[in-house]
Design goal:
single chain, elongated, about 20% strand, Rossmann fold, 11 helices, 4-stranded parallel β-sheet, binds adenosine-5'-diphosphate, about 325 residues, 2 domains, 8-stranded mixed β-sheet
Length: about 325
């Protein structure tokens, strides 16, 4: 199977993630290597609707691989949910001579890409750009490793002050309604316990754990919570712990710092491989699919599966975190 496309447009959509620039660079340079014209589409689906296109050269993506953010901007678009706006977007692409698309984003962006394919049959593939790592069909998403390391660096620093003042800290990390960052940073950062939306923890058990740590002479502790933990979020948890046990927990919400910064080597490598594979996939005639990585091999998953199936968090790591902090 091969395709006769002559041009490709690349865009970022949804939440931004470190490594998106490295992915754009890989898409652009591979497309040029394969003699395709390549266009940057600014501001995600909004930029498609308002024809914010720019033809890119190898130089356009120079000095970019190490930069956080997304130079094409990554945005959300309510307009794109309307069929008439998608028709306008498609007409703009056609007018500009953009024959195929690479979408860098999360599952919401994939849903938009799938809809665009269903309605207009334009060849389109996706690559996973989100710090949340919650995309079915890929072991890792672009940005996850960087966000994880940013959160880890923060936790290491919090540990210093927690130790000096014998304090209990609750650190809230991002991840939307999944616990990938929380679970992994909790393990890497030596947290006592981790709260993730996928598996509710008993507050009583957590308090017992902290009390037994204190009895053993461990006077500072770190709990990690995912932002999607319900009921919870860090301030509610701190209040509940104070009411039940009298422990005065300090709260640190890491927030958007996790979305920025220079991508790690792992994210740059992943972004480069996936970006190049997106172009090779389009040339082979792949469409309506997400490119991912599984067991270190490039893989494809239909947009439908990628947006309807759920990736399983390794919940057994919660037990490991508990054991290793006891
Ligand atoms: P992410 O890609 O990070 O999951 P969002 O869920 O915000 O981000 O989705 C990004 C954009 O994708 C939305 O703002 C919207 O324009 C588009 N989108 C999401 N779902 C659909 C859909 N069902 N049909 C068309 N477009 C969609």
């Amino acid at each position: 199977m091969s395709s006769k496309i002559n041009s490709v447009g690349v865009f970022c959509s949804g939440g931004d993630a470190p490594g998106m620039n490295a992915a754009i660079r890989a898409v652009v340079r591979t497309a040029l290597f394969r003699n395709l014209k390549v266009y940057g589409i600014y501001n995600g689906y909004n930029g498609m609707i308002s024809a914010q296109f720019e033809e890119l050269t190898a130089k356009s993506v120079g000095n970019l691989i190490q930069r956080g953010g997304a130079f094409l901007k990554a945005g959300r678009s309510k307009e794109f949910l309307k069929p008439e706006s998608r028709k306008l977007a498609y007409d703009n692409l056609k007018k500009a001579g953009i024959e195929s698309l690479v979408c860098i984003g999360g599952d919401g962006s994939y849903r938009g890409a799938h809809t665009l394919f269903e309605e207009f049959k334009i060849p389109i593939v996706g690559i996973p750009g989100t710090i949340d790592n919650d995309i079915y069909g890929t072991d890792y998403t672009i940005g996850f490793d960087t966000a994880l390391n940013t959160a880890l660096d923060a936790i290491d620093k919090i540990r210093d002050t927690a130790f000096s003042h014998d304090r209990l800290f609750i650190v809230e990390v991002m991840g939307r309604d999944t616990g990938y960052i929380a679970l992994n940073v909790g393990l890497a950062g030596g947290a006592e316990e981790v709260f993730v939306p996928e598996s509710p923890l008993s507050l009583e058990k957590v308090i017992e754990h902290i009390q037994s740590s204190v009895q053993r002479g461990k006077l500072s502790s770190i709990l990690v919570t995912a932002e999607g933990q319900k009921p919870g979020r860090a301030y509610d948890l701190a209040e509940a712990i104070r009411k039940k046990s009298g422990f005065d927990a300090k709260v640190c919400v890491l927030g958007h710092m996790q979305r920025g910064g220079s991508p790690t080597a792992a994210d740059r490598i992943l972004a480069s491989r996936l970006g190049a594979s997106a172009i090779e996939g389009l040339l082979k005639g792949f469409t309506d699919v997400a490119i991912g990585i599984q067991n270190d091999q490039i893989s494809t998953t239909t947009f439908l599966d990628a947006t309807t199936k759920k990736k399983q968090l390794k919940l057994e790591l919660l037990q490991l975190i508990h054991i290793l902090s006891t």
